[in-house]
Amino acid sequence: MSRGSLARELLDFFLPAACLGCRDHLPLERTSELVCGRCRTRLRELPWPRCDRCGYPLGSRAVPGPACVECHGWGGELTGARSAVVLRPPADDLVHGLKYGGWAELAGFMGRRMARCAIPPPLASGPYLVVPIPTTRRRMRSRGYNQARLLASAVSEEVGRPLREALERRHGGPTQVGLHPAQRRANVKRAFVVRDDAIVVLSGARVLLVDDVLTTGSTAGAAARGLVQAGAAEVFLSTFARACPYV
Ligand SMILES: [Zn+2]
Ligand SMILES: [Zn+2]
Q1: C-alpha of residue 119 to centroid of ligand 2, in Å
Q2: How many angstroms separate the alpha carbon of residue 150 from the centre of ligand 1?
Q3: Are strands 192-194 and 206-214 parallel, antiparallel or unpaired?
Q4: 37, 70, 155, 176: which one has the fewest Cβ atoms less than 10 Å from its Cβ?
């Protein structure tokens, strides 16, 4: 190792950690916060008016109704959804940092944001179970954790409802990125199984599924189908971010 690169490494070691949203250095006393104040204010909630069922922004002239173009194709098993922020900088960097960057600590910040503004209204009162959307064993092995499980744990703690890992992923399957919605639906159709030890608690229960990002809803729809077939009364979804291409 050259003297120059050694000096650089030493410098990096002693410098404050960078914000995971914008890579700017965080002040030393705030490195544990992971996300700088500017990025926190740049995180944008989904604009109003929103779809009653899925929370999607409808545009200024639309009238909120029981469903919208985004959720009308969802199966009846997924009753509703809410997301905390629009998937755009810096939210996409946070999602990426949690999923691929090994920054498991981000889940606390993101989960608290979800508990504050991404709980579907019908769940404002009464009991429900918090259930993470599981990842595949292969991805679990390579990453060491399931980002949805970490988010679900943070949400569960914040809302005071129990966490239950009720689902398992049946098979790996290719990544969903870049696929047409119809292909996604076909891929995820039989992707989930309900764990035997969860059947009893699911019976008649309301469930809040938790994931990092909501894109088409096909993954959550498949998970919801499994849960309802296993006896769950109602299934909702909460995600940290939502893909809103036109916002
Ligand atoms: Zn930042
Ligand atoms: Zn909708």
Answers
A1: 15
A2: 22
A3: unpaired
A4: 37
Q: Which residues surround ligand 2, an ion (CB under 5 A)?
A: 51, 53-54, 56, 68, 70-71
User: How many CB atoms lie under 10 A from the CB of residue 176?
Assistant: 15
Secondary structure E strands in 107-226: 129-132, 167-169, 192-194, 206-214
Q: How far apart are CA 23 and CA 10, in angstroms?
A: 19
Q: What angle do CA 25, 31, 33 make, to 5 degrees?
A: 115
| CB-CB contact of 194 with 105 (8 Å) | no
C-alpha span between 231 and 233 (Å, rounded): 6
Which ligand is in closest contact with the Cα of 217? 2
Distance CA 88, CA 1 (A): 39
pLDDT tens series, the chain, 247 aa:
455 566 655 545 544 478 999 988 888 777 778 899 999 999 999 999 999 999 999 987 777 778 899 999 999 999 999 999 999 999 999 999 999 888 888 999 999 999 999 999 999 999 999 999 998 777 777 778 899 999 999 999 999 999 999 999 886 555 666 767 766 665 556 789 999 999 999 999 999 999 999 999 999 999 999 999 999 999 999 999 999 988 8
Say which ligand is closest to the CA of 70. 2
103 C-alpha vs ligand 1 centroid, how far in Å?
15
Dist. CA 55 → ligand 2 center (Å)? 6
